[in-house]
Amino acid sequence: MAAKQDAPTAAVVVDPDGMVSGWSEGGRLLLGWTAEETVGRPVTDLLADRPPDSPENHGIGSGPTGVVALRHRDGSTVDAVLKAHPLRGADGRALGHVLSAQPWGRRPVIADRAFEQCPFALGVYDPELRFLWVNASACRVMAHSEEQVLGEKYRELFPELDDMAYTDKLSEVARTGRPARLITVFRPLGSNYANAWATSMWPVRDAEGRIRAVANWGFDMSAEYWARQRLLILNEASGGIGRTLDVLGTAQELARTPVPGFADLVTVDLFDEVLRGEEPPSATASAPGETIALSRAARHSAKEDTDRAPGPTTPVSHAPGSVAARCMATGRSTVELASDPGQGGEWAFGPGLAADPAHWPPGTPLIDGSIAADGLTGRITVPLRARGALLGVVAFSRRDRPEAFTADDLILAEELTAKAAVAIDNARRYSRERTTALTLQRSLLPQVLPNQEAVEVASRYLPGGTGAEVGGDWFDVVPLSGARVALVVGDVVGHGLHASASMGRLRTAVRTLADVDLPPDELLTHLDDLVLHLADDLRSAGHFQPTGESGATCLYTVYDPVSRRFTLASAGHPLPLVISPDGTRTPVPAQPGPPLGIGGLPFEATELELPEGSLLALYTNGLVESRERDVDQRIAELQGVLNHSATSLEALCDTVTDAMLTERRTDDAALLLARTHALDPDHVAVWDVEPDPAQVPRIRKSAIEQVDAWGLEEASFITELVVSELVTNAIRYGEPPIRLRLIRDTSLICEVSDASNTSPHLRRARLFDEGGRGLLLVAQLTQGWGTRHTTHGKTIWCAQALPLP
């Protein structure tokens, strides 16, 4: 094989008559014939098979050149590549031909044919990137012939590719001598499609190792490349669409994901009901021929600066018979192309079967709309459907690239839309549930804090961000007897409607137990039993258990403006912050008890005496929880904010929420601030009563004098009756010590205390009964009355409304 590859080239001179007139040494080495044996003989004698006689082929020198079988002197045949070169004299007269013959199996010959016929684009350039050689495939890609490019510089011949990755990499290989590989995307001349080419480049060195040229080959991998790009877009959509439970945010994600890799402009139009979280209209809601009104929820363009946060939508209308209207009516995607074959144009389809109309999915509408007038080269309109409901319509448009959409592009558009439709519908359903839960929760929270003089109060409730469900945080302010007030804050475990409903039950229970005037520790004990019963009620007898967790925390406090006593008990809830008027934190010597719903564990009450003007801060854990810092640090931050001077508690609430809550919070938060007031000692009068009925007139007289001294003469008559009845009952049915107390607050309060634990009750007196009408008179003449038990007995109280000042 080596000898054949190294065989010389035979040179033969043939005169115009086809006779051999010259013979080279290479001819002898190749065919074995000497010059004496060949000169003067017809050149056709060298052929193993004599060609047929014809005007075009009367001799080998004047016929076509190519691979021929030559006759060796030893009788064998030699396949050789024969080329003819004409000879002419000084006067232009034909002198014959010079024939060159090379063995067919010789490396330069077969390699030249292999490279020439290679389906890949091949080229060789000098170090200055001048064309030295290109094959036919490369000429087709460049839309230039070999004669047009040989000797020309690449950058000058194709200035649009100057400073591009391809030419820069060729220069780098020529400079460094290191081979390189890359994928380039460009649009061949005369084509409407961008092609992806895989290219390899390597240096060509001489025997001394010097770089004499740069060679490269490339093949069109457009089908694989664009398929990979579609997969990348789908992969991006998997992590980029539906990240938040927000309708507008999801629509914006759908519009942004395929730009610019797939489309140049994407619009998403939704029904207003979808934006509001309501059920979308049924398919029969619009009569035929009516304009369909939607709202543009998202629009993203590769050129315009439209990548903005979701904001107000823009109303849009789709006329009857429009592409979008037909698309929504039929439920099928529609493809619009730049030209219509029926009008004498040609489809601008790219290479591959996917671009051929015959290979589109059956029934796919291919129409020629007005997109050319709009500057578009193609548009795919896809109905936005999820779970059988029509939510809107999506349009994918191309305008900055001439290529039309293909069948594979339609599949990608429908896949993106289907994924986004489910995410938008999930966001719509979540928005509806969240709105319902939030409405329920806000309706269960106090809308207006009750009027009382014990404390000045302000509150805030902030639900979690749009990515979280509504929680069960709540607070309340409950006026109590004796001018006292209860401040309550709690947190139900879990989120959603279950938590809101449980919160409503607990708040109602706390108000009911507060009306009974139970001490904080006893109230939490009853509340704990209630939570246990609620958990039992929620258990299903079947196999399916209801979703949602049971359990809650609660902080119940009572402030008495007469004694300035602050009593509290906690069921697993953070203790309140108490800030003295001088700004120092008053420690609360208490430990939170177990959360509600545990059962069997006691709760302890703690009592503090507060200076007037103390600031109380009751809050839920959503206010102080943070992923970056622990709870103690956050509580210290809260205390620092509470020391901030503010003109009012309302302003201080805003300062606290702005400083403590972030936009990315995942839990709701409740805050209740209260500034304590002390009742003027001159507004309180107390008498010890001896257990003797004869003392009733004296006590009654003292009470009337005190009421007159307060300037409440209009209340004297009722006060006289109430004091007489309550003191008489205490003497008759109670146990000493007995005490009468009058409190002038927003109302006139009369309290009679004794050491007995028996509670009085109203009863209907019969016609001739001598008693039994006292409490009925008290109930009819006063604004309210009741009983509260203490560690040393009970207190019967009643309150009269005072005229406005």
Explained architecture:
By secondary structure, the chain is of the alpha+beta class. 29% of the residues lie in helices and 28% in strands. The protein contains 20 helices and 32 strands. It has a seven-stranded mixed beta sheet with strand order 13-12-11-17-16-14-15, sandwiched between helices. Helix 10 packs antiparallel against helix 13, helix 13 (407-444) packs parallel to helix 14 and helix 16 packs antiparallel against helix 17. The longest helix is centred in the middle third of the chain and has 38 residues, at 407-444.
Briefly say what this structure is.
The chain is 29% helix and 28% strand. With 805 residues, it is of the alpha+beta class.
